[in-house]
Amino acid sequence: MAMWRRSAAPRSWGVLLALLAPGKASAQEDGVGPLAGFEAARTGEPPRVDGRLDEPTWSQVPVFSRFHQNFPTFGAPPSEHTEVRVLYDDSNLYVGVRCLDSQPQSINTQLGRRDQLPASDVVRVMIDSLHDRRNGVVFALSAGGTQEDARITHDTQVDPAWDGDWEGATTLDERGWSAELRIPLRLLRFPLAEEQRWGLHVRRQIARTHEQLDSVPLPREVNALVSRFTELRSLRRLDPPRQLTLVPYLASRVALRPGLEQGPRVWEPSLDVGVDVQAHLSSDLSLSLTINPDFAQVEADQLLVNLSRTEAYFPEKRPFFLDGLELFSPVVVDSDLAEQTLFYTRRIGLELPLLGAAKFRGSVGERVQVGVLDAVVAGVANPSGQQEVPDSRLRFHPLRPLHFAPNSSLPASVGPPTNFFASVARVQLGELGTVGATATLATPLSSECHMGVREEGCTPTGGRSAGVDLALRSPSGDYTLAAQLSGSQVTGGPAGGTRLSDGTLLRDRDAGFGLHVTGGKIGGEPWRVRVSYAHTSPRLNLNPTGYQPLQNEQALRLEPEYVRMDLAGLPEAAVGLRLSSRWSTDARTLPLGSSVSAVVRAVFPDSTSGDCDAGVEVGMRSLREVEGAGVAFERPAFGFAGCSISTDASRPLSVEGLVYVERLLSAYSPRWLSTQYVTLDATWRPLPRLQTSLGAAYDNTFEGPRWLSTGEDGVHRFGELTPRFLTLTLRQLVVLSPTLTLQAYAQLFSGFGRYARFTEMAAGPGSVLRLTELRPTSVDEDPSFQTTALNLNLVLRWQYALGSTLYVVYARSQEVTPAPGEPVTLTLWPRGLSRGAATDSLMMKLSYAW
User: Fold this and answer.
1) What is the pLDDT confidence band of residue 114, given thresholds at 50, 70 and 90?
2) Helix or strand or coil: residue 326?
3) pLDDT value of residue 560
4) Is 17's pLDDT higher than 60?
5) CB 20 within 8 A of CB 215
6) Tell me: the pLDDT tens digits for 775-830?
7) Which are the contacts of 368, defined by CB distance < 8 A and separation ≥ 6?
8) 371: helix, coil or strand?
9) Residue 468 contacts residue 435 (beta carbons within 8 Å)
10) What is the pLDDT of residue 283?
11) Engineered SS bond to 240: which of 231, 283, 657, 821, CB 3.0-4.6 Å?
C-alpha cells in the first residue's frame, strides 16, 4: 500500500526536550538571592508527598529560581516565577517545585493516564546521576497530577518507554501550584563516593502562554541537552542501594471464539500465573526476570493490509522489553534507507508464547554500559488436532507449565521452541561519543518445524548476527557521526536453501554484511547538512533476531537545510532539499531509483507546526516485485506533494492532519492523481478528566502493474491494482484519578483492491522487465479482494499501590472476507461485519509488588 511516511511534528518528548532557550533570572518569593546552581539538603524527616511543600524541612532548603524562557520568545524574561528545592535521605531524592502564577484560575489541569502526559501545565525534573553529561532520566508531573517518565541517551535521544516507580503529587492555591516528587535512589545510577555531583535540569511549561522555562540557557538551535545540565551539589554519604522486587501476577481469562466448521462459538476459560523479578545488584547494575509474562493489557497493533514486498514494522509495547530498550537499539535509525536493526524485540513471542526471559543491564566502571537479554518461546499443539467436537480437556504441558486452559485453545501445530539471545557493550569516549558491539542469536531448540504435525524434510532455521557501532558528536552537538557495521550467518534451514524475494538463495552457513553511516552538521544556524549511506549485501539476513526489510540494496542520501530561529515572528522555520539514489549490491550494481524533493517546515508562536514537501522519483526498479525470480521490474516514475499540520495540543480541541498526493509520470496512470492519501485526527478535552480522540485515514492509490503469478513456462503475469482503504479510530480516556483510568480503543478497517488490465511477459533471472514490454493477457480467476475488520479494547487500570496494578480488559477482534467462490464486493462499506468470525475475551490481571 502506498503510504506517505512523513508526519507532522509531534508533541512528544523529543520535541519538548529540543525546545530549549536562555532567559533572565528572577528573584525568589521570600527575597533570598537566587542560587547559580542546585544545592541539596539532607533531611532526617522525610516529607509527606502531598504536593503542599508545607513541612518545616522544606523551608530550610536552598532555593533555585534562575529560570530562562526558551519558547515562544527566545531569551525573554519568564512571565511567571518558579522555585526549586531539593532534599534527600538514604533512600530517596525529593524535589519540590513552586510554580507561582498571576492567573491561577487559568492553570491547565488536564489529566491523562500514566505515561501519557496531556498538554497542560507541567514540570519536568531531569537528572544525570552519573554526571557523564550524556545520559539521564526524566520525571514529569502535570498540574493535574499525571506522571510520565523517560530516559535520555546520547545527550539528546529520549526514550519515553522507560518506566520507574516513583511518587508525585500536586496542589493548587490562590498563588499558583506546587509539585512534589519522591524519586527512589534505586532508580538512579551513581558511583560510590563521599560526595556526589550530579547534573540536574528543571523545566516548567505554562500551557496558556506556551512558555517553556528552563533552569539553564539552552538555545533551540543547539543540539545538546544533558551536557548543559546545571550541577546538583551537596549530596553526601549516599550508598548505592541494593533491592529485590518481586511482582507476582494472576491473570484469569475467558474467551468466546469461533467454532469449527461454522459451529457454535466455543467458551474457553484460562488461568495464568507468573512473576516479574527485579534485582538492583548495585546502583549501576540490575537483573530483570519474567516468567510466563502476560501482556493482555497492551493495546492491539494497528490493522493494515501490507501490499508491499517487505515486512511491516510494529513498535514494541510490552513493558518488560521496553525497559532498557534504548541500550539494544542501533545508533543509526533511518527507516527511509536500508534499515539494519540487529535486535527487534517483536520477534520474541511473535509466533509462539513467551515462556520466560532474563535481562541484565547497567554500567561496569564509569564508561562501559552492558546489556544481556535471553528469552525462550515455546508453544504446545492441540494433542487432538482439529476436529469437529472441541477438545475441552485440561492437560498439564511441560512447555507451558503455568498456563491452564482446555486443549481446544491450543493451535493444531506450532513451531519449534526457540531461544533468543542478545548482548551489547558500549564504551563512552569521554564527551565525544561511544563505541559499541552487539551480538545476537536465534537458536531453535528442536529439530522439528511443527510439533504434533511434522512436515517432511523441514528443518528449523536460526541465525546469528554481530555488529560494531560508533557515535560521535562535537562538544557543541552541532556535528555528529554515527555508523554501524554488521554481519550475519544463517544456521539450519531446508537442504535446498531458502529463496528470498529478490531471487537470492540462502543456505546453511551463508553470511552477509551491512553498513549504515550518517553524519553532518545537524545543529546551529543557518546552514545544516546531513549525508547518509546504507549498504546491505545480498545474503545479509538480520531477521532471525532483528529487523531488516531490505537486502541487496545500497542507498546514498544528501540533505542540505537552511534553518532560522525567530524569523519573521516564527519561533523556527526551515527549508531544505533531499536527494537520494539507490542501487543493488549484487554483481549487476543495478540502478533502483533516484528522488529529489524540497521541504519547508515551520513552528508558529501558538505552538502550531506544519511542513510541506514536493518532489519526484524516477528510474525505479523493484527486485522483489516478481517473488523469488531475480527479475528487476520497472516501476512507473511519479511526482508527489504533501503537507501536514498539528495545532496546539493544550487547547480543548486540537487537530492533526495530512494530505498527500502522487501523479504517475507515464501512460500507465488512468487518472490525473494516481494517489490520494488523507489523515485527520482530532482530540477533544471537554473536561480535565475526559479526553476523546477520533481519527480517520483514507488511501486511494493506483499501484500500477503488480505481480500475480509465474507459470511453469516461466511467464510472469501481472494486473493493475487500485486499492482503497478506510480506517476509523476512536480512543476514549476517562481519568477517575491519577492512579485509576479507563481507556477504550476501537479501530474499524475496511478496504478492497481491484485488479484490471492483465498483462504478462517471460523473463529469466538477472533480466530487467520493462513496462512497455508487457503484453495483454487474461486470467481464469479475478484476484480482487475485500476485507473488513474491527478491533476493540477496553482497559481499566488501577495502581492501588506503588508498583502494584489491577487490570480489567475486554477485547474483541472480528474480521470478514469473501468466502471462496463468493463474488468480491468492491466497497468500503463494512458489509457483513456482523456475520464475520469474532473472538471476545474478558481478562482480569492482578499484580502485587513485594
Assistant:
1) confident
2) helix
3) 97
4) no
5) no
6) 999 998 899 999 999 999 999 999 998 889 999 999 999 998 877 777 888 888 88
7) 425, 426, 427, 428
8) strand
9) yes
10) 64
11) 283
- For residue 31, CA distances in Å to 28, 100, 179, 180 come to 5, 14, 21, 22
The whole-number pLDDT of residue 394 equals 79
Q: Where do the domains of the chain lie, and which CATH numbers do they carry?
A: 13-241 (2.60.40.1190), 284-379+414-551 (no CATH), 555-783 (no CATH)
CA dist list (Å): 252 to 274, 318, 843, 845: 12, 19, 6, 7
Q: How far is CA 603 from CA 610, 646, 647, 795, in A?
A: 7, 10, 10, 35
pLDDT tens track for 414-440 = 888 999 999 999 998 877 889 999 999
Q: Which residue has the cell 535520555?
A: 152
Average pLDDT over residues 68-72: 88
> Are the C-beta atoms of 82 and 97 separated by less than 8 Å?
yes
Q: Using an 8 Å Cβ cutoff, are 545 and 462 in contact?
A: no
Predicted pLDDT at 130: 85
Do 434 and 426 form a contact (C-beta atoms < 8 A)? Answer: yes
Q: Which secondary-structure segment (H or E) carries 319?
A: helix 319-322
Contact at 8 Å (CB) between 113 and 743?
yes
Instruction: For 622-648, write each residue's pLDDT tens digit.
Output: 999 999 999 999 998 999 999 999 998
* The three cell numbers locating residue 796: 481499566
Q: What is residue 18's predicted lDDT score, i.e. its pLDDT?
A: 33
User: Tell me, what's the pLDDT at 173?
Assistant: 95
Give the 3-state DSSP-derived string for 597-654, with helices as H, strands as E and coil as C. EEEEEEECCCCCEEEEEEEEEECCEECCCCCCCCCEEECCCEEEEEEEEECCCCCCEE
Grid coordinates given for 689: 478528566
DSSP state of 700: E
For residue 422, CA distances in Å to 163, 356, 503, 724 come to: 21, 15, 29, 40
φ, ψ at 325 (rounded to 5°): -65, -30
Nearest to 561 by CA among 223, 241, 103: 223
Give dist(CA 194, CA 233) in Å, integer.
Answer: 12
Structure-derived torsion over alpha carbons of residues 298, 303, 307, 312, reported in degrees to the nearest 10 = -10
Residue 780: burial class (beta carbons within 10 Å; 0-12, 13-18, 19+) = exposed
pLDDT tens digits along 757-785: 999 999 888 899 999 899 999 998 899 99
Q: How far apart are alpha carbons 102 and 100 in whole angstroms?
A: 7
* 100-122 average pLDDT score: 91
SS3 431: coil
d(Cα 828, Cα 170) in Å, to the nearest integer? Answer: 48
Separation CA 770–CA 785 (nearest Å): 26
User: Read out DSSP for 16-56?
Assistant: HHH----------TTSPPPPSSEEEEE-SSPPP-SS---SH
DSSP letter (8 states) at residue 105: G
How far from the centroid of its chain's Cα atoms is residue 693's Cα?
Answer: 20
H or E element at residue 15? helix 13-18
If pLDDT is split at 50, 70 and 90, which confidence band does 301 have? low
At residue 682, the 3 state secondary structure works out as strand
Rounded CA separation 591/768 (Å): 11
Peptide bond into 549 cis (omega under 30): no
Which pLDDT belongs to residue 428? Answer: 87
| Segment among 317-326, 453-462, 662-671, 747-756 with least mean pLDDT | 453-462
Phi, psi of 261 (to 5 degrees): 55, 45
pLDDT exceeds 70 at position 297 = no
Q: What is the distance between the alpha carbons of residues 385 and 388, in angstroms, rounded to a whole number? A: 10
SS3 443: strand
Place of cell 530516559: 151
* C-alpha dist (Å) from residue 235 to 127, 216, 658: 13, 20, 50
What is the overall mean pLDDT for the chain?
86
The whole-number average pLDDT for the span 101-109 is: 94
Three-state secondary structure call for residue 550: coil
